[in-house]
Design a protein that fits this description.
The chain is an alpha/beta fold. The protein contains six helices and five strands. It is globular and about 45 Å long.
């Protein structure tokens, strides 16, 4: 499995720790930055992360900012990207099962790191159910 990851300054610490954790699990990571806690603009990192998912260069994406909202909104501008802002494991599970989400957006300022890891694990391990959900997912894209 290969995962793209990006964050702004508010998500930098989580991003660094998540990369280390997932790499230790044998997952290949593609880091789109940021590379420090210096203030930056989240779209500069969300767009390339989402593009990697959109272009099938990776299997999934992880985006992190303070609220999770900015990176989530940015990612969802890309056709073929279904980014979901998650704040608990039930949402992480359902967004994969019912929406076939391919990016998880996390709010670093509102969830503990350990819980962020739990959400990522649930997100990555949960398959899309398809079936009745398939036609709905096909209607999401504007193209």
């Amino acid at each position: 499995m290969k995962i793209a990851i990006g964050s702004d300054h508010a998500g930098y610490e989580y991003k660094t720790r998540i990369i280390q954790y997932l790499t230790e699990q044998g997952i290949e990571m593609k880091d789109f930055g940021t590379l420090s806690t210096d203030s930056v603009d989240f779209p500069d990192f969300a767009h390339p992360t989402a593009a990697a998912v959109e272009n099938a260069e990776v299997d999934f994406g992880i985006l992190i900012c303070g609220s999770g909202q900015g990176v989530n909104m940015t990612a969802n501008k890309h056709q073929g990207v279904r980014s979901a802002l998650c704040w608990n494991t039930d949402i992480a599970r359902l967004t994969r099962q019912h929406n076939n989400a391919n990016i998880i957006a996390l709010p670093a300022r509102f969830v503990a790191y350990e819980y962020a890891i739990e959400m990522i694990e649930v997100f990555l391990k949960t398959p899309f159910e398809g079936g009745r959900h398939e036609k709905r997912v096909e209607k999401i894209s504007c193209s």
